[in-house]
Design goal:
Elements lengths: L5 H8 L4 H12 L6 E2 L1 H11 L9 H16 L7 E2 H10 L14 H13 L12
Antiparallel strand pairs: 1-2
Helix pairs in contact: 1-2, 2-5, 3-4
Amino acid sequence: STQSTGSSGINAEYGGTLEERVAYCFNVYDMNNDGYISREEMFQMLKNSMVKQTTEEDPDEGIKDIVELVLKKMDHDHDNRLSMDDFMKSVKEEDLLLEAFGPCLPDTKYREKFLADLESGNVILDVSQAKS
């Protein structure tokens, strides 16, 4: 899968339909662009977004438990990874799962200001350096 750039990526990131936002987040989470969010990708994203606890328990074990819970809830076809279809179904059932592996969409307040500035011409986007 390829990540969208230009106005369609901006549209998804700064509003867009639920499907566009789901696709945008999925593409952010699919770190190796193979079309799936693997156990390893989930583990890395959750590890990066977790607050470090000063307990005796190995924090990696807690993250592995969360990955298992996520798979149990979101892996609809039971192939031990999340496809776009799994992710879409899960988010449609529970929209809080959209950013399950860490924030990737801007805060509503910033999104609204950015869109207003973009419409008024106060923001110029240079997508010439954007990766496709």
